[in-house]
Specification:
This protein has 261 residues and is of the alpha/beta class. It has 2 domains: 104 residues, Rossmann fold (3-Layer(aba) Sandwich); 125 residues, Transcription Regulator spoIIAA (2-Layer Sandwich), CATH 3.30.750.210. Helix content is 33%, strand content 16%. The strands form 3 sheets. A 5-stranded mixed beta sheet has the order 1-2-3-4-5. The longest helix has 15 residues. The protein is globular and about 60 Å long. Its cofactor is [4Fe-4S] cluster.
């Protein structure tokens, strides 16, 4: 799509960006903490009679929160779904309801004003088939983030991760190190925060990443941070993460009650 479609990413001043960029579609990604802002942005887009696609964790967990200003909600992983939606829009110049029904992993408004669900989208597998994120659309700073896994094996009631991602999947060690190298070479990144739910799920994979960082002469040139669970923080894991270049690990205090833990 990059050859035929021009993208613009913005976090603020959405109305001015709409006026300047004149998009055909507005896409909004949101978590629950900022869903009120997503609702407001959708209202702004509708003032200009633009179709609105809403994706992200909130709409995936609470699909009936889709507002009348949002034409389509993307449930779960959106890479293939957004491609299908854009193909439909390019072909029809609008979102035709009969055609929307054929696209997996979305919700939309039917003719009677009800939220309609399409068939569930299969999980992306293997993750390595995904291209690296289009970071040229962003202002990349020396401190940035990336994902090396999707999902979490734990089923904490207060967390949406296990429901959103469904199961744990890994980008390969080689893919991960190639993306790290891309960030270092192209954007002079000095620190990378892994947005994985847990960075310590596969010890052998950590060892493989360290070896590949050495081969590519990146080990020691970039620092890392990420999240870990207390029950996974043994001496071997902490030692390997330190060797890899981790300077910070976040650990959730999930409960103050021993019975709960």
């Amino acid at each position: 799509f990059r050859e035929n479609i021009e993208f613009k990413v913005t976090e603020n001043n959405i109305e001015q960006e709409i006026i300047n960029f004149k998009p055909d579609i507005v896409g909004i990604s949101s978590v629950s903490q900022n869903y009120n802002k997503a609702i407001a942005y959708a209202k702004i887009a509708k003032r200009y009679e633009l179709p609105v696609i809403c994706g992200g964790v909130h709409i995936s967990m609470m699909p009936f929160s889709l507002t009348s200003d949002m034409d389509v909600g993307v449930i779960g992983e959106g890479e293939q779904t957004i491609c299908d939606l854009l193909e439909l829009f390019i072909r029809e110049s609008k979102f035709v309801r009969d055609d929307l029904q054929k696209i997996k992993g979305i919700i939309y408004w039917d003719d009677d004003g009800r939220v309609t669900f399409t068939n569930k989208r299969e999980l992306m597998y293997p993750l390595n088939k995904l291209p690296v994120p289009a970071r040229d659309l962003f202002n990349i700073r020396p401190i940035t983030y990336m994902f090396t896994t999707r999902g979490c094996p734990y089923r904490c009631s207060f967390c949406a991760s296990s429901r959103f991602w469904n199961k744990v999947r890994f980008f390969s060690a080689e893919y991960t190190v190639n993306e790290i190298q891309h960030l270092v070479d192209e954007y002079n990144v000095k620190c990378i925060d892994f947005y994985d739910d847990l960075v310590s799920l596969d010890v052998n994979r950590i060892k493989e990443i360290i070896d590949l960082l050495k081969v590519k002469n990146i080990l020691g040139k970039v620092n890392f941070s990420g999240a870990i669970r207390a029950n996974l923080a043994n001496d071997e894991v902490i030692g390997l993460l330190k060797k890899m270049g981790f300077k910070s690990l976040g650990m959730g205090l999930e409960s103050g009650c021993n019975d709960t833990l």
